Amino acid sequence: MSEETCDESPLATDAELRLVVAARVACTEAEGPGRRFAVWVQGCSLRCPGCCNPEFFAREGGESIAVTALVDELRVARDVHGLAGLTVLGGEPSEQPAAVAALCLAARELGLGTIVFTGRTHAELQALPEMRPLLAAVDTLVDGRFDARRREPADGRRWIGSTNQQIVHLTPRHADPALWRGRNHVELQIDAAGRLTAHGAPDLLRQILRSMS
After folding, report:
1. What is d(CA 174, CA 79) in angstroms, rounded to the nearest whole number?
2. Is the peptide bond before 91 cis (omega within 30 degrees of 0)?
3. Gene3D superfamilies in the record, alphabetically (predicted)?
4. pLDDT of 15-39, one tens digit each?
């Protein structure tokens, strides 16, 4: 009796990975240094009070997208917009670690820098073996739970929500402090379907949306 074995290659495994995405934009300068592809994941069990994206807390909702399809979008966006990198936010990226790691690794292979915003600290992630591939694929981690009582001042670090959060450079790619200084801003974009999306500095965004209502 012969026994057949089936060896799964890493590529085959990655082809099955899916990421539940709450939102994404192909090109933004409001979510990290330079022009970036930004992905907001769906689902967060941390639920920090005052979070700017409470609609992304629930695990239900969002769109389940194959990582390979997101990589195809990323490759096109890189070529069209001259992207510098990928930013993954949430929701909570560490709650979908395998898919986020695969997406970040693919971004690296496309020559792009990777930034992940997470409510968990670097130390918390280091203590979890399943997070090792994610940490290995990220250039910069912005970590820690958002604390609405300790908001980052307007003249503080760009893109950071509260003063307790850390910028952890796992590679030198985004380590220049000058990249993290400057004024935050908001972007309004109209997608191919004619839908208006808004993202960027939460407090400024709230002011703009109130003025439009």
Report:
1. 21
2. yes
3. Aldolase class I (3.20.20.70)
4. 689 999 999 999 999 999 999 999 9
In whole angstroms, what is the distance from residue 75 CA to residue 64 CA?
A: 19
Question: Is 80 exceeded by the pLDDT of residue 188?
Answer: no
Are 68 and 15 within 8 A, CB to CB?
yes
Average pLDDT in the 141-153 region?
95
Question: How many whole angstroms separate alpha carbon 101 and alpha carbon 114?
Answer: 10
Of 186, 164, 189, nearest in space to 50 by CA: 164
For the chain, domains (ranges, CATH) are: 16-184 (3.20.20.70)
Strands (E), the chain: 18-28, 36-41, 63-66, 85-89, 113-117, 140-143, 166-169, 186-190, 196-200
For 67, phi then psi, to 5°, come to -60, -35
Residue 9 — pLDDT band, cuts 50, 70, 90? Answer: very low
Sign of CA dihedral 180, 186, 192, 193: positive
